[in-house]
Amino acid sequence: MIRKASLLFAGVLVGAVAVSTLSQLPLRVSGAANAAASDTYRQLNLFGDVFERVRSDYVEVPDDAQLIESAINGMLTSLDPHSSYMSPKTFRDMQVQTRGEFGGLGIEVTMEDGLVKVVSPIDDTPAHKAGVLAGDLITHIDGEQVQGLSLNEAVEKMRGPVNTDIAITVRREGRAEPLEIKITRDVIRIRSVRWREEGDVGYIRVTQFNEQTFDGIQKAVEELSGKIGKSELKGYIIDLRNNPGGLLDQAIAVSDAFLDRGEIVSTRGRNADETQRYNARAGDLTSGKPVIVLVNGGSASASEIVAGALQDHRRATVLGTRSFGKGSVQTIIPLGANGAIRLTTARYYTPSGASIQAKGIIPDIEVLQELPEDMQGRGETKGEAGLRGHLEAEGKDEAEKESSGSQAYVPADPKDDKQLALALDLLRGIQVNSAFPPIAGERASVPN
């Protein structure tokens, strides 16, 4: 989950960096503090010594700026899979992407074991149409090994002029041989919310959380209730499957759209005074119509905030498979003309006080999809807990509950979609389940 960059300039993001002048430092420093500072300076001197030795003795003349950038990125990526350095160009691209339009293939990616891992292909993009799947590991880009590249460097290689071709080689679970996929780059215009009538049910698909998402939800509810008719409308299905997340403020706004009151999410940083709580305002866009939220192993971050808030408040029934388990918040910190850093600054918690980090949202009703023959043994993502260097679940007992992964497959034909079919049957009363409709107040410790 990425916090909206523009908010940073207003100083309201969790984990905003505070800069102290020397005059603000205490006059007396304890011996332990002195020792710690001295050790830090020794380590910095070590870095300087190595840097100078590389500059003077490496077999070829290195690029000083590239050395520094690689060192910074190495420091950040050693913290967790979601912290990284962004060059000025990458930072600009990120800002464009959160506005809902950017150039590329149309995949959300992270780094795993030195390779680029696909978190989710974005609907109706070149990568999605070419058959890229969640969980694919990209090993080569146009024949060049990904191993040794940073995530940003790999992303840069996958971007390029519109209508140019690129070949990626992927390692896919269940396949003995690597798979080469050819994709034609295009302008990726993210319509983050799509909707359609499913007879007497409103179906709303949210593909990611960008600046347009809440407006899309408003428009979807308005149009669906108008076309179906408020009296005939049985309820809504909010499909968050394979939604990799996005902006925190949009996740809060979407949750608020279905809630009348209570906490939506809280974020807690390293220090207790950094805790922030976000609450719903009065008013439910759907006037209390039943809601079912669909999630799977590709539902991450902002998606999990929405699912967790609606589940904890018993406003919606969550159906599908366990979500990805990314329960951390990344703050984008601009560095002037030098780009920005994406730094993990907090964990987030659902209204009941639960952290889903490395565990995910457990659906009220678990439904597995039937995999076609050529997908047997695949269609599953390892989730956050499968990423090297991930933040562990809080506490030893919680760490033992880390998720081992979850199915992330969604059939291309809605007729083959078991999760969607059950959601429709529940809303229409054709099938019954004790988890639907949810019983208000049943879930413990939900603040109001």
From TrEMBL:
Highest taxon listed in the record's lineage: Bacteria
GO MF annotations, alphabetized: endopeptidase activity; serine-type peptidase activity
Stretch list, region Disordered: 375-414
Record-annotated PDZ domain positions: 91-159
Keyword Protease applies: yes
Pfam family for this entry, one: CtpB_N-like
Membership in a protein family: Belongs to the peptidase S41A family.
UniProt-recorded name of the protein: C-terminal processing peptidase subfamily
Species this chain originates from: Polymorphum gilvum (strain LMG 25793 / CGMCC 1.9160 / SL003B-26A1)
